[in-house]
Amino acid sequence: MVVDGIRRASARPRIADTADDWLDAAERAHHRHQPPGFEESVAFQDALDALDTDRREAFLLTQVLGLSYAEAADALSCPVGTIRSRVARARRDLTHLWLAPEPAAAKEALAAA
Predict the structure, then answer these.
(1) Mean pLDDT computed over 74-82
(2) Whole-model pTM?
(3) CB neighbour class for 9 (10 Å; exposed up to 12, middle 13-18, buried from 19)
(4) pLDDT tens digits, residue range 26-44?
(5) What angle (nearest 5°) sits at the alpha carbon of residue 73, between those of residues 71 and 79?
């Protein structure tokens, strides 16, 4: 029975561990710094600007504008798998940016990722 569970788990695709981490990181950063609305939007824009262009486009289309991965793939003329990987990497990058204690450390964390 245990073996069946292991086989079943290994046959299924793994769920990315960063699926909701970027949201948690953004909330923790917000609560840690408590910026007002305008400053928060500027901080979010700065974080988006720090992303690679391809990752930023895929992230904005799917996570901000609400397009499906297929719709974003059509809009950017690339495969759906490429969109999925770009969004996952953008989430990871945003997590590193928002969890870094200082702006300089955030840039170093993003460069290391």
Answers:
(1) 96
(2) 0.61
(3) exposed
(4) 666 655 555 457 777 787 8
(5) 140
In one-letter notation, the amino acid at residue 90 is A
- CB–CB of 91/18 below 8 Å? yes
Q: Are 100 and 81 in contact (CB under 8 A)?
A: no
Which residue's structure tokens are 């953004």?
26
The Cα–Cα gap between 97 and 99 comes to 6
Written as six digits, the tokens of 104 are: 């300089």
Rounded to an integer, the average pLDDT of 92-105 is 76
Q: Are 95 and 81 in contact (CB under 8 A)?
A: no
Strands (E), the chain: none
